Amino acid sequence: MAFIELDNVSKSFGKTHVLSGVSLQVEKGEIVCIVGFSGAGKSTLISLLSGLERPDSGEVRFNGKKVTEPGPERGVVFQNYSLLPWLSAFNNVLFAVENVLTKLSKEEQIAHTERFVTMVGLSHARDRKPSELSGGMRQRVSLARALAADPEVLLMDEPLSALDALTRASLQDELERIGRLSGKTIILVTNDVDEAILLADRIVPLGAGPAATLGPECVVDIERPRDRRAINHDPRFRVIRNEVTQYLLSTRKKRRPESETASVAAGTALEVPT
After folding, report:
1. d(CA 68, CA 258)
2. How many other CB atoms are found less than 10 A from the CB of residue 9?
3. How far is CA 258 from the centre of its chain?
């Protein structure tokens, strides 16, 4: 029995058929990255796994039980931070701890929150409100909040997509470290193949929509910890990158006129690197 599972799941919104026959199994402690184009249905996939959306057909299961609603065992990190603007960085994290880890004493809740604020490198900014933080710092608060609630599965919906390149690279390194040390089961969706190779145990591409489905998985058998400078020279990195990218491009080509496909191949309309 898989720890978390999508079983032949399909989902539409009105006349738009987003996902079709999607099946995925994720084992406990595994880090899986789902890579695909913007608009392919990656966020819908995270919403189904979290219980925020229900499938039209098929089932989502967590630990063998059907998922019908959100639960504290499945934490979500969104693209847009979703922080409470009137609370400080520290209190945004503490708010989640107070509402989920209710058996801890007040002193234990504060100490627990301190640990995760420190883990993401925000001790110096703990008293700042979201409006006083940079985008990268807000995403660190969001990540600390999700981790501090101690979910069994961490679902990440393109959490770094809105950041500048340098901040994104810094947080990718942070996620690689946290994922490796925490032992959490993590499912991350992204449109960045290099990011997926840096972070994942396994990459599963999501083909271009409409009616997107998952393609052949690719095991990232590159030793951890992974250094972004060294990994670029690893022959296995290049093989994985090529396999995932070529599959994604092939699905896009089937759904686009030839003139559009040419621009995709040239890198002007594709958000995964080639």
Report:
1. 42
2. 24
3. 32
- Length of the chain measured in residues: 274
Q: How far is CA 156 from CA 151, 212, 272, in A?
A: 12, 19, 17
What is the SS3 assignment for 31? strand
What interhelical angle do 235-255 and 258-265 show, nearest 10? 160
pLDDT digits (tens, 9 = 90+) for 171-204: 888 888 877 877 889 999 999 999 999 999 999 9
- Measured between alpha carbons, how far is 124 from 171 in angstroms, rounded to an integer? 17
Beta bridge partners of 261: none
Residue 14 backbone zone (phi > 0: left; psi -120 to 50: alpha; other: beta): left
Confidence label for 88 from pLDDT (cuts 50, 70 and 90): very high
- Which residues neighbour 198 within 8 Å (Cβ) at sequence distance 6 or greater? 172, 176, 226, 228, 231
Dihedral of CA atoms 231, 235, 240, 246 in degrees, nearest 10, equals: 120
Whole-number Å distance between alpha carbons of 128 and 131: 8
Q: Name residue 126's amino acid.
A: R
* DSSP character string of 69-138: S--TTEEEE-TT----TTS-HHHHHHHHHHHH-TTS-HHHHHHHHHHHHHHTT-GGGTT--GGGS-HHHH
The 10 Å Cβ neighbour count of residue 223 is 8
Tokens for 86, please give them.
């009137």
Instruction: State the pTM of this model.
Output: 0.85
CA dihedral 230, 234, 236, 241 (to 10 degrees): 60
Alpha helices in 120-222 (DSSP H): 135-148, 165-182, 193-199
Mean pLDDT of 64-88: 91
% of the chain exceeding 70 in pLDDT? 92
